[in-house]
Design brief:
The structure holds two protein chains of two kinds. Chain A is built from 14 helices and no strands. Chain A is 76% helix and 0% strand. Chain B is an all-alpha fold. Chain B has a single domain, classed as ABC transporter involved in vitamin B12 uptake, BtuC. In chain B, helix 2 runs antiparallel to helix 3, helix 9 runs parallel beside helix 11 and helix 10 packs antiparallel against helix 11. The longest helix of chain B is centred in the N-terminal third of the chain and has 35 residues. The chains are: A mainly alpha, B mainly alpha. At the A-B interface, helix 6, helix 11 and helix 13 of A face helix 4, helix 9 and helix 11 of B.
């Protein structure tokens, strides 16, 4: 791993934070105070650290859900909807099961449902060449309305005892508990394991290789006989499944009930996680922690300083834009370095000639 | 009595179809310019949201809708300029750029409204642009409602013809098509590829500004989170459906608007279905549109989404 692979993400974070800090000046809050509050909320207490680690697990899953299709040149903007569909399916199952049940079953059902939701966009892309960016955005809206209906006044999942639009709470058997004395739970381990599996899948397996050629060198992929349609469907199934899993984990460890606002744009943040990590599964672990700090800190800041979470979302968006410029910045710096080297060598030559003359 | 009721119903349907279609038409026109020149603008929705919010905020502060409109257009043009610079000069990936711009628009538009308006003044309502009656047209029974809209609706309809004329009947338009089809060939015969693409993307930003400001200044007079509700994305699908022809894109937008609004009438008559089914309808139609329009792959500008580098293969 080269040093620049580490330097650019850090530079990206710095630039995005600097731009983000400009936004709070108009409302009379100093940027310094904002970042102090973001750090304090996420890392300043045991509770904050626990929340941050849990959220990092969720964001790592949605990050991988964006990353795997990205590596095949397929754009999955649908993690938000896939996450909701996973949570929706899991809620359906635990409502039906009642007091007795198995948490693993919920995870499987949620993953399959998310996978299906992603697969729709994959099939439409492979069979009809329907632009997956737009279809996944539309599928997000449709998923939102499905959840909104299911917990709405006439919905099957609504908790009739509650005034608000929410489902029955997750029974005790489905809730995640922390390993004794640590802020870690099954979610953390699963997501880390999946990041490692994704890494090996992409870099060491035949399918992974085919996926990478599809985005890296489409012509070579075609000539090597890579089935593009099949691969598109597979990556969307994987991406959807990972987001669906994130949805079930959201229910199990963060919210415990299905509500429309279950995911505060965490599906979209996944895109930023993947982009900041330069679409690398292991790098995503670190970028998911960064965004978890930002969002948990953002929630704290929303309560203490009344700064809405939209600000954090804006910083995330700017991070995507700056991370996107990475290759441009690298080439610019390389070019600058080349020019500098050229000037130095020319100066050296001139000096050399002078030296020759002196010898004469 | 019965006849009069049906008449008002049809009038309401025509009017709401027009109002729903207007921002989509404007967005379609802008996207047609950008995509004909070979630049993909996935961030349309984001620019529309930013313009809607900026327009509303400035109008609420100054108390003048015209100032709001100008601010919205400036915001649209500025974001169009940023997209143009990043995608044409820096050759970044246009899809990820669009996603970034969209997510920025989604969150920052709400933040602008919150920090400048809501934070200090609470919820603010504006009176949107007034209706302008067109003489004679507004006197026709039933379809006369077409002549009783605000100026933005008329402007959108007129701009359809202007866009068609500019893109298909002028030297500029033919050059734009040449740049979109074959930038290298166009460059070799002396067409200024980079300049034309810049102009087209900035025009796209202008239209996005107009479309965005229609929501806050022309229609509702208030701000809600994600006020455009996916219309920018619908427009992207519509441009494909219309085969990059502004006329067909407009027809598509009108039919789409009709379907969206007839749902309210259906909703009243079919009471058994949950109302979310009707809310999800536009997006389901959007997906179907994309499936249908995949047949028109041949009409797509050949260099769409591919940045042009002088002296490189691509």
């Amino acid at each position: 791993m080269e040093l620049r692979n580490l330097v650019y993400p850090l530079l990206t974070i710095l630039i995005a934070s600097a731009i983000g800090s400009l936004f709070v000046i108009p409302i009379g809050i100093s940027p310094f105070k904002l970042y102090q509050s973001l750090i304090l909320g996420s890392l300043g207490s045991i509770r904050g650290i626990t929340d941050t680690i849990v959220l990092a697990g969720i964001l790592l899953l949605t990050g991988l859900s964006a990353l795997v299709p990205f590596r095949a040149g397929v754009w999955n903007i649908g993690a938000e909807g896939q996450l909701l569909m996973g949570a929706f399916a899991a809620t359906y199952v635990f409502t039906a099961l009642g007091t007795q049940g198995n948490a693993a079953l919920l995870l499987v059902v949620g993953t399959l449902c998310g996978s299906l939701w992603g697969g729709i966009a994959g099939v439409l892309k492979a069979k009809f060449n329907a632009n997956e960016i737009v279809t996944t955005v539309f599928l997000n809206y449709i998923a939102m309305f499905i959840v909104s209906w299911s917990v709405g006044p006439s919905g099957p999942l609504r908790d009739a005892r509650q005034a608000g639009n929410l489902s029955l709470p997750m029974p005790q058997w489905g809730r995640l508990t922390f390993f004794a004395g640590t802020p870690l739970n099954t979610l953390t381990l699963t997501s880390l394991l999946l990041a490692l599996i994704t890494y090996f899948f992409l870099s060491r397996t035949c399918w992974g290789y085919e996926i990478r050629t599809l985005s890296g060198n489409p012509l070579a992929a075609r000539q090597a006989g890579v089935n593009k349609g099949l691969m598109t469907i597979i990556v969307m199934l994987i991406g959807g499944g990972l987001a669906g899993l994130a949805g079930v984990f959201m229910l199990m460890s963060v919210s415990n009930v299905l509500v429309l606002g279950l995911s505060s744009n965490y599906g979209y943040v996944g895109i930023a996680v993947a982009m900041l990590a330069t679409q690398h599964p292991i790098g995503s672990i670190f970028s998911s922690i960064y965004f978890a700090i930002l969002y948990i800190g953002g929630q704290y800041t929303q309560i203490t300083m009344q700064v809405p979470i939209m600000l954090v979302n804006s910083i995330t968006a700017i991070t995507i834009l700056i991370a996107m410029l990475r290759t441009r910045i690298i080439t610019m710096i390389d070019r600058f370095r080349q020019i500098l080297m050229m000037i130095i060598s020319k100066l050296g030559k001139i000096n050399g000639r002078r030296d020759d003359r002196d010898d004469d | 009595m019965e006849g009069a009721m049906i008449e008002t119903m049809i009038e309401a349907l025509i009017e709401s179809t027009l109002v729903t279609a207007t921002p989509i038409i404007l967005a379609v026109l802008g996207l047609t310019f950008a995509e004909r020149s070979g630049v993909l603008n996935v961030g349309m929705e984001g620019i529309m949201l930013m313009s809607a919010s900026t327009g509303f905020t400035v109008a609420a502060i100054t108390g003048s809708l015209a100032m709001g409109l100008v601010a919205a257009l400036i915001m649209g043009i500025a974001l169009g300029g940023i997209i143009a610079f990043l995608s044409i000069s820096l050759c970044v990936d246009q899809v990820i750029l669009g996603i970034g711009i969209w997510f920025l628009g989604l969150s920052l538009s709400n933040y602008i409204w919150w920090s400048i308006i809501f934070n200090t003044r609470g919820v603010v309502y504006l009176t949107p642009f007034p209706r302008l009656s067109i003489p004679f047209v507004s006197d026709i029974p039933i379809i006369g409602v077409i002549g009783e809209q605000n100026w933005m609706v008329y402007a959108a309809l007129i701009l359809v013809f202007v866009t068609y004329f500019v893109l298909n009947k002028t030297v500029f338009g033919l050059r734009v098509s040449a740049v979109g089809q074959n930038p290298m060939g166009a460059d070799l015969i002396g067409v200024r590829v980079f300049l034309l693409r810049y102009v087209c993307v900035i025009i796209c930003g202008f239209f996005a500004g107009l479309a965005g400001s229609f929501f806050t200044l022309g229609q509702t007079g208030s701000w809600t989170n994600n006020i455009t509700a996916g219309d920018g994305w619908i427009a992207i699908a519509m441009v494909r459906l219309g085969r990059w022809n502004p006329f067909w894109g407009t027809v598509g937008a009108l039919i789409f608007g009709f379907f969206i609004k007839i749902q309210f009438i259906l909703q009243l008559s079919i009471s058994g279905l949950p109302y979310e089914v009707f809310l999800a309808l536009p997006y389901t139609i959007g997906i179907i549109i994309l499936v249908i329009s995949s047949k028109f792959k041949g009409a797509e500008p050949k260099s769409l989404g591919i940045p042009y580098r002088r002296g490189a293969e691509h």
